[in-house]
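idk why but the lab printer keeps eating my pages so im just putting this in chat instead. protein + zinc ion:
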Amino acid sequence: MRALLFEKPGQPLRIAEVPIPKAGPGHVLLRVHACAVCRTDLHVLDGELTQPKLPLVPGHEIVGTVAEKGEGAERFEIGDRVGIPWLGWTCGECSYCLWGRENLCDKARFTGYTLDGGYADYAVADQRFCFPLPDFYGDAAATPLLCAGLIGYRSLVKAGDGKRIGIYGFGAAAHIVAQVARYQNREIYAFARPGDKEAEKFALELGAVWAGGSNERPPAQLDAAIIFAPVGELVPQALRAVGKGGIVVCGGIHMSDIPSFPYELLWEERSVCSVANLTRQDGAEFLALAPRVPVHTEVQTFPLAEANDALARLRSGKIQGAAVLVTDATASG
Ligand SMILES: [Zn+2]
Ligand SMILES: [Zn+2]
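predcted complex ->
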């Protein structure tokens, strides 16, 4: 099968012909149909996430059909369409796992980081961490739900019940969160890279009540803000935009350093928090909610072999919605 291999930070992925992996006990082998490209993949490739398995097949928003089942893997049938997310395995024994916070598991393993992912024709996953997918979505369209959607949803829950929500960085996660927030009768204020009029237009099309540059003040005081852009300077800017008791949620896995800021920005019970990974519960909730909204995902597809090009476009902000790698097995949509 074809696989894209990450071997060393700073180097492009190398396409290689490798043996199809075997599904071990409790695991399933998926014929990959589509796999989205995530900002986290860039953090891995750039060496900002420092513990990858090597060589590594990146990709953690995988949609495929079950091609083979390992011993005792009875949850799915051959041919079932399932999704593989970032969270690939947890210990089930640590205090985080036992308290329903498996996203924080000390020993967690992650797809496309410490486990091989979906930039390939086949991928293996622990069946317990796979999700059945709503029929509403085609293969490519379903992929962004598995990380952008899940992390976005977890970030929105963390942001609390406030009505006016700011979103910094209008990429794959934001375009999904905006639709969920609107469905919940909230107002979205979208902040894009200064001067990125295309992103502002995209945000307004998705129902944002206001869109502007991240250096601008919104026309109303916000109840919460979610930062998806990996830019630490946005934290004090977002704190300036939220009112008393406001919450600033950092939704990414990596961010540049946050500059120091005066205490008055945090005063009056404003808070800053991060969102780490996902739980299977988040997945079940969000994948049930998405087709009810219904969340429409905007995707730009690339053949598997053009992964480096897709990553470069994501890096330069040239992707509207999500970039998705597709294989020969991809069904339409
Ligand atoms: Zn991701
Ligand atoms: Zn654990």
